[in-house]
Write a structure and sequence with these properties.
It is built from 14 helices and 7 strands. It is mainly α. Helix 10 runs antiparallel to helix 13 and helix 11 crosses helix 12. The mean pLDDT is about 95. Bound molecules: adenosine-5'-tetraphosphate.
């Protein structure tokens, strides 16, 4: 438990094909948290270039993610919305964290192993050190809570490890400069500079799976367009993708236990639950015994009803780049004001000269 005021931070990569998993696993939660917290939402463009991005498409995708944030209900007049590369403190703090994190920690990251594939020698150094930049994104704002999908859980644990090691390595200096705040680490009360951030993960859409394979997560980079519902898909495309979604021949069960070993059925029921703000048990209460021929069109209608208006608003916002760019410039200025202070403190703690 930390006494640092609660603050939410999260980010989305502008790598195209923004999908229903990104929306339900992350963006929808960002919107809800605005009511109770100070929030900072970032388009993480520095992360995007860990794999090749065409420059013109990258610009388009940065604007598209920003438009998705705003169209989903994030209010940039009350919370901070910006793109990562405009606040260079992220990259500077990441360097310090590269020197705190251990090679062994990063080598265990499953996302790196999956994205690098068999030919690790050809992966960028940035892809390997991705989690230290993510720790920096979060800790630049000394954020206490991070809403993410389940795939990011391991990176959040690494962020805590980095914060804890930094606090520990520099504990005397943090005390000397009177920059520590009391926090609980296990059974111990300690003083540290960086909070041990809590992930916010959960609900029926914490891990939305591919529509073509219920054992693989829905992903922007899946070569099959049929594997995901893209936020800007039109009603016909959404209906077609759900119709073609892989399923088994059985009817839906009436109880949750009946979804065991039926990953595709489990995924579609979870999607219905998340889109209708209920849980899987309630969905099965309504559709238990129904065939997929009945359930899939109902799910498609619900998805169109929930994401159609967001997609329309995204298109409208994308027609006016100047408005989106102004939101990002304004948000970056606000973010920079917080980031400067954290970086100056960090430099002072580490022992650099001329930090302030
Ligand atoms: N399938 C998913 N279910 C639930 N949440 C998901 N997220 C991603 N996929 C799912 C969450 O969306 C947020 C933004 O993700 P990201 O853009 O930072 O990148 P990612 O996690 O690598 O997502 P993708 O879409 O699967 O991209 P690729 O194909 O590049 O790997 C995060 O909170 C993430 O957890």
């Amino acid at each position: 438990m930390t006494t640092i005021p609660e603050r939410v931070f999260s980010g989305v990569q502008p790598t195209g094909n923004l999908h229903l998993g990104n929306y339900l696993g992350a963006i929808k939660k960002f919107v809800a948290l605005q009511e109770s917290h100070d929030c900072i939402y970032c388009v993480v463009d520095l992360h995007a270039i860990t794999v090749w991005q065409d420059p013109a498409e990258l610009q388009q995708n940065i604007r598209e993610v920003t438009a998705a944030f705003i169209a989903s209900g994030i209010d940039p007049t009350k919370h901070i919305v910006f793109n990562q590369s405009q606040v260079s403190e992220h990259a500077e703090l990441a360097w310090v964290f590269n020197c705190v994190a251990r090679m062994g920690w990063l080598s265990r990251m499953t996302q790196f192993k999956e994205k690098a594939g068999k030919d690790r020698e050809k992966a960028s150094v940035g892809l390997f050190s991705y989690p230290t930049l993510m720790a920096s994104d979060i800790l630049t704002y000394r954020a206490t809570h991070v809403p993410v999908g389940e795939d990011q859980k391991q990176h959040l644990e690494l962020t805590r490890d980095i914060a804890q090691k930094f606090n520990n390595d520099y504990s005397d200096r943090i005390a000397q400069l009177d920059l520590g705040v009391p926090m609980q680490v296990g059974d111990e009360h300690v003083n540290g500079y960086f909070p041990l951030t809590e992930p916010i993960i959960g609900g029926p859409a914490a891990r939305v799976m591919s529509l073509r394979d219920g054992t693989k997560k829905m992903s922007k980079s899946d070569p099959s367009d049929l594997s995901r519902i893209v936020m800007t898909d039109d009603a016909d495309t959404i209906a077609k993708k759900f119709k073609k979604a892989k399923t088994d021949p059985d009817a839906l069960p009436s109880e949750i236990e009946g979804l065991k070993d039926r990953p595709e059925a489990d995924n579609l029921v979870g999607l219905y639950a998340a889109l209708s703000d209920t849980d899987k048990a309630s969905v099965l209460g309504e559709f238990g015994g129904a065939q997929f021929g009945t359930f899939k069109p109902a799910l498609a209608d619900l998805a169109v009803d929930r994401i159609g208006p967001i997609a329309n608003e995204m298109r409208r916002l994308m027609d006016d780049h100047t408005h989106i760019d102004a939101i990002l410039a304004d948000g970056s200025e606000q973010a920079r004001a917080i980031a400067r202070k954290t970086l100056a403190d960090t430099k002072e703690i580490v022992g650099f000269i001329g930090a302030r």
